[in-house]
Each structure stands twice: as structure tokens, then as C-alpha cells.
Specification:
Elements lengths: L5 H10 L21 E5 L3 E4 L2 E3 L18 E2 L3 E4 L1 E10 H6 L6 H26 L17 E3 L5 E3 L9 H13 L13 E6 L4 H9 L21 E4 L9 E5 L2 H4 E6 L14 E14 L5 E4 L3
Parallel strand pairs: 1-12, 9-10
Antiparallel strand pairs: 2-5, 3-4, 6-13, 7-8, 9-11, 11-14, 12-13
Length: about 300
Amino acid sequence: MANTTYSFAKAVAITDYLKPFRDSAKLQSWNWKKICTMGKTTRATEQVFSWAGFPAARKTGELDSIYYADMSELDPTTFTVAKYTLATMFSNELIDDNQHLPELMGEAGKAMGDSHSCIRDVHAAAPFNRAFNSSYTMFDGVEMCGTHTLKSGDSFVNELVTASLTWDNLWSGVNKFETSMLTQSGLYMKDTPKFLIYHPSKQKEVEAILKTTTGQPGTADNDANTLLTRSLVPIPCRHLTTSTNWFLAGEGFKADFKWFDRMKVKSKMEDDFDLDGVKLKTTQRFASGIRNYTHIFGNTGS
């Protein structure tokens, strides 16, 4: 039979090759940048100070003394930059003997980019995974979602009563933005609930809640679905370690969720004189975290 010689088979094997890296990830596995304020820093540590504002004004007469109040300041939130490095090495022989794989280095670099993007996604989910854990406290010594004491001395609870993600329970969270929000000075505050953060295993429930046009999903209620007027933005996060946890964040939350990318400085390239190989290295440095807790409510779910 024609075209079955060893040389022909070898030629086909060399010509029709598979890509050296066959796995590829989508660069962002959850949309955390919608709820995060990005920034840059030239320092290894950033400290953010927040002002708590003033108490309510007090009525005074024309000839009375002016009412003075001290401006209070929240304890600083410290953002410490961490370094994440990934490297690999190819021997010169591999490069020389595989000239029919011209995209080897390019594919390796892309794979490293996928890996670095993944660690950013994991890092962005950390505040939500630690939201109910008293081992990870904020500046006031309380976890992100818990019972906080404001600068005014008032109590602010942003951990909702444990409940599954249903239409009624989500409405209870929405109502908190109208009835339970306080500034650090104890003044009534209002925010617009904007982002619903949840585990993808709850996608069915979320779509039923947010897309049903009439009535409450799973009930005989034929009234209009009032949640539709809220235009909540669903943000599924696969990196949540507890599938029942869900969070409702307001428009003001983005200003409190800080991300600092460490700006790169020029450095001398290093050549490897010890090994007969080619090194490929990628490094990134960043810090992120929650500056304040007043624009988010969390629920451990069930």
C-alpha cells in the first residue's frame, strides 16, 4: 500500500503535532472587579484611614454658643503586599530538538498568565470566605459580618439571621438597606442594594428569584415581582468555600473593597550560568481587603 513507509509516518508525526499546553483557563473565573476598587502602590504596605464624620447637628439660638463636636477617625486598615511567583525551566536541548514547536514559550507564558489570574480570583474571594470567622477580624476586632460597635457607641449588625437564599429572605436583606443602616457617627444612612454574591450551586434559585416576572417563585402569588425593580447584579463566585453563604452589597461597598497592585520597578535581567536551560518566570505583588463593613450584609445560609 502506498504512503506507509517509516519515513512518511515520521514526517506526519513531526508535522501534525499537538500544542504543547492543551489546558487553558478563562482569565477571570468570577466577576470580582465589579465590586472592587483597583489601585496601585509603590510601597510594600498601604494604610488606609477613614473618617467617621460628625454626630447630628444641635439646635442653638442666635446668641447661644456654637455646638462643637470632635471629628472621629476609624482605626487604619493595613494592606500588606504579598508576592506570588510561578516559574518553569526548559532545557536547551528541548528547545533545539523541537523546532517544530515554535509556540512552546508563548504557550507557557499564557499558561502562567492563567495561573496568576486564578490566584487573584482566589484572593478576591478571601474576605467573603472569612466573613463569619472570628479569627479574621477587621479594625474593630470583629469579623466582616457580625455585631459591630460604631464610633458613636451604637450597635450595627450586618450578619443576617441564618436563612436560605429565597425571595422572601432576599427581600429581608434589601429592607436592611432601608431600615438598619447607620454611619459610624450613628446617623441614619441609606444605600442602594446592588450586588448579590453567592455560590454557583445556587444559580437556579437566583435566576428564579431575579427573572420571574410575576409572583414569588414557587408560590401561588401572582403579584408583580417587586425585586425586578431593584436591578440586582448577580455575581456567582465558585471560590466560596461554603456553598450556602450569600451576601448583599450596596453601591457604596465598592469604595470599601480595596485592591492595590504593587507597581513594578526596573530590575536587571539574570542569566543562568549554572544550568544549560531557559527559565521562564512570572511574578506579581498585590494586597486587597475590606476597609469598612457598613455597606454589606451577609448570611451564612442553610
